[in-house]
Task: structure prediction
Amino acid sequence: MKWRRSLFFGLLAILLCSCGTTVQDSLKVTPSTQTYVGLGKRVVILPFADYSSAGNLETAYRRNLLITENLTDQFSKYGFHSPIQEDVFLYLVDHNFINVVSYGTKQQTSIDYELNQEWSGAMKAHLKEYADLTRQNRAQSSGVESPGTHGLTQQEIVKLGRHFSADYIVRGRILEYKDRQDPSWNPVKKGLLAFVAGITSKTMYGQAESDKYDELNMTVSGFGDGALISALTDGELKHALWWGAFGAAMGNMAHHSGKIPQAVVQLRVWVQDAYSGDVVWSNRVNVKASPESVLADHQHDALFEKATEGAISALVDNFAQTVYNVPPPQVRPRHARQ
Result:
């Protein structure tokens, strides 16, 4: 009786102590442990050319916004100053370098309408391919609005640098900005059930040609695993059928689980001398960010934020090391880099 009373009061205390609000905050600009090599210097960050052909105008704008914000933070870490991004954008618009296009709600195409209907995953993938192809054809037919036609001359770079009293002009390309499935078979990431059933299925059948066949293969593999368990224990037929049915159900469940989202970000960045227009540094980075375990955050926005931060941090650190001989940082973010 005493243990029940103790358990009741313990649970009551936990509930009472759990009232409140959880607040998470993070200051993005962490000062460099090295000297501020950028003190007294100013960088102008231009909007990136987006070659990723993913999403619409609104998502493209937000993608560019996340990249430029991270660039501002990382350059600030080394002491560089940069003008307000809206002022840079206004200058580019006033001098006809870029055009303002509204990304408000427009008439929905038939393919976009069908993408919101209850089609299978495989069918939606094919519809998305057609939608992307349609957007690419429109971009190519629009002449000057197509990718690769918005270059800047050295005179324009010098004029831009003089207007903002800048030392460097930062430009870049978004080569990849997409989500995919992490191919890892780590059971900590994938889950034990999906790992066991998936290994059996891939070993027996290899890569299936569609999602439907993959589901069937996992189900059959689960049946085989269950029958094998029965054969290794008592070997009775009725137990083998029961274990096989149980394994088939688990294999089918495993097919719909064990997905590991992965954010892929690939960028190319150039830094030009604002006084001459010469390129003083350039590099490219490819970052893939995925959850470390089944209990980690699987939200796509969090993964893309981590991948973008890792990509920009690696690029700006490399710029500081190459141009100003800054020693590499001791602690690096935990994501896969290529």
Q: What stands out?
A: The first strand starts at residue 43 and ends at 45.
